[in-house]
Write a structure and sequence with these properties.
The chain is of the alpha/beta class. The protein contains ten helices and 13 strands. It has a seven-stranded mixed sheet with strand order 8-9-7-10-13-12-11. Strands 2-1-3-4-6-5 form a six-stranded parallel sheet.
């Protein structure tokens, strides 16, 4: 799909972390024009109710907030759905335009997986096949309905996707860590300051909803344990694998040689949260374990950037035939 004029955008769920991050990228995008912003909790208010930085200093204006239902009914050229899993699952796709769902409601092809991993029965099981999983570096979106990957799944798949034919599938063990914004903006006991600060805790051990998503793309399951970090944002996945003979680093370097988003770091350099926080890029490091025959592949990205909003905009860019990096945060060496 190609466009020679500005594409109009509607965002549902703009008051959440992913919604606000998506809004920010649309406002800085040279080819997207914001048309509607939805939030049930803030409907009827000026945009400054969401964030006082909006509509000041001569920036692009954000319209008065409307309900999520109204935002979904706009039939915009692009609709970003930033709702909860269950709310997004109820979605009747708009009659026109591209829809990008940033929840997990349309990532899994098998509807039975939603009962097992998300805790609800999918209300539209027959419609799941219409959604295209959009991880540009491995599974480019085909549109017009795009299921945006999960943050952990993105990191693990970027690290392991190019290696899936070159590693022993029974050897894969992943330890991953994410900042607290990965849990969303809604308050819950596990995200209170008293639980998060000066603490690192595993959660959803053996039961995280991104596990079947990873297996769906790789073609085999992995042992995956997520941990909550006492930081606002950023995600790091350490993948321990055994090669079946191929040079793991070589395969990754070759796969990402032309990527403007994913960087395979030089030997000896490890990915760091500080370099990817607030950006839409990803770093991959490769290390040989000196005491075993295993290889350690580490991927770092921002859970709200490449793990959510940045990837959603990247998918839209590809579907509209725009520059892949338009509207993304990729430059700079901030301390």
């Amino acid at each position: 799909m190609h466009t020679k004029q500005m594409a109009y955008v509607s965002i549902a769920g703009a008051a959440g972390y992913t919604g606000q991050e998506t809004l920010d990228r649309v406002l800085h995008h040279p080819e997207l024009e914001l048309y509607a912003v939805g939030s049930d909790s803030l409907a009827g208010n000026e945009a400054t109710a969401l964030d006082p930085r909006l509509n000041r200093n001569g920036g692009r204006r954000v319209p008065r907030l409307i309900t999520n239902a109204a935002a979904l009914a706009c039939d915009a050229d692009v609709t970003f759905v930033c709702l909860s899993h269950e709310e997004a699952a109820e979605l009747d796709a708009p009659g026109r335009g591209i829809v990008v769902d940033l929840s997990g409601a349309h990532r899994l092809a098998d509807p039975a997986q939603y009962d097992a991993w998300y805790g609800f029965t999918h209300p539209h099981p027959d419609g799941l096949g219409a959604w295209s999983y959009g991880l540009p570096e491995l599974v480019p979106p085909t549109g017009p309905l795009i299921a945006n990957p999960g943050c952990y799944a993105t990191a693990v798949l970027l690290a392991l996707g190019p290696l899936r034919e070159a590693i022993d599938p029974t050897s894969v063990v992943v330890d991953a860590m994410s900042g607290m914004t990965g849990a969303g903006r809604s308050l819950k006991p596990s995200s209170h300051a008293g639980s998060v600060l000066e603490n690192v805790s595993p959660y959803r051990v053996g039961a995280h909803q991104h596990v079947p998503e990873i297996a769906q793309v790789l073609g085999f399951p992995v042992s995956f344990t997520p941990h909550l970090l006492p930081v606002r944002r950023g995600l790091l996945a350490t993948c321990n694998v055994r090669s079946t003979g191929a040079d793991v680093r070589e395969l990754l370097v070759e796969h990402y040689a032309s990527s403007p988003i994913v960087t395979v770091l030089p030997p000896g350099i490890a990915p760091e949260l500080a370099r990817v926080q607030t950006t839409d890029g990803a770093e991959i490091g490769v290390f040989e374990d000196r005491h075993t025959d295993r290889t350690i592949v580490i991927c770092a990205l921002d859970n709200l950037g490449k793990g959510a909003a940045g990837q959603a905009v990247q998918n839209v860019n590809l579907l509209f035939g725009l520059r892949e990096t338009a509207g993304l945060r990729l430059a700079g060496v901030l301390v």
